[in-house]
Amino acid sequence: MRTYQELFRTPEFTPLFLTTAGQVAAQTVSGLALGTLVFTRTGSPLLSALAMFGPSLAQVIGATMLLSAADRLPPRATLAALSLLFALGMAAAALPGLPVPAVLGIVLGLGVLAALGGGVRLGLLNEILTKEGYLLGRSTINMSSGLMQIGGFATGGLLVAVLSPRGALLTGATGRASIGQTWRNNARLLSSPPRRTVYLALWVPNGLVVGCESLYVSYAPDRAGLLFAAGAAGMLTGDILIGRFVPRRWRSRLTVPLLLLLAVPHLFFFLGPALPVAVVAVTLATVGYAASLVSQERLMALTPDELSGHALGLHSAGMLTMQGVCALLAGAVAERTSPATGITVLAAASVAVTLMLARGLRRAEEPVPEAVVVARTRAAEAVPPSPGDPVGTDPA
Question: Disulfide: which of 6, 66, 264, 342 matches 333 by Cβ 3.0-4.6 Å?
């Protein structure tokens, strides 16, 4: 599957694409409104970052308790129910006079459920597309998310100015899970060194840069929406280039360069650049988010089919959890120094982590023979091979 025409001819892809885009738009408006509301009431970069990215942090709870349901629950009904809960939660958070701790409690609770939603949504995408079509489908959904974020942040900024943060927040509110099985599946997925390296590359450098982004509100309180929109535009550009135009034989070599691109331009915030320069730096940097597409493709090549939804859910939950952790870290640094210093420190940490992971990523990107995949799966499950099954030695 190489063209968008083929992609949109696939049954069920268009409805999934449209519902995902709508949800991203609503979350974007609500997130900016929440961050602005809390910053206006408290003047705290830390609490503002927590309001916007705390739901991401809370996904670690969902990843340890709920993800086994990602491959068991009926996906369509589950996604519809979670969308309704999100709308009700955002409406509740906009209630006049609601204390800031109560607002944060609501959004953190929604973050726990979002971990399950991410696993179900990505598992459904993997189910309705062929393995060759997954990266194109994922990049297309990412592109729609980028467009929705551009429009959402621009609309959110306008609504915050016209309606107030609380009014913008209201505008944006539109199988049985097994904890034990979730833990066992997580352990199985993380038992392979190549998969662990890919997960770390998906989670940590990305999370640290999102920590940089969590300080946009405190860096430019009146123009944060412009910085976020610039970031969404850069991400959209990267997804188009990697998802549609870069051949597969080249993609595997781009993980480390893209991760470095994601962080390095943010180092210039140490100079306290004016808004136009900051917009250019953010746009350039966020092209590097396309590294996630390359790493997800590699993750699927290293994962048994029956765990695809769980594996993608673990990726999503882990990534968003790390984003929440790093947003809090960035807020704490900015509280003691300045937003510009916080952005610089988190960007430097992202560069350092990427360089430490580079060697392992090169090994993880090497071709994996089918016999090795089977051997890894058997070893992880502690199941002896059946007669006639291929066997091999795990070079990792």
Answer: 342
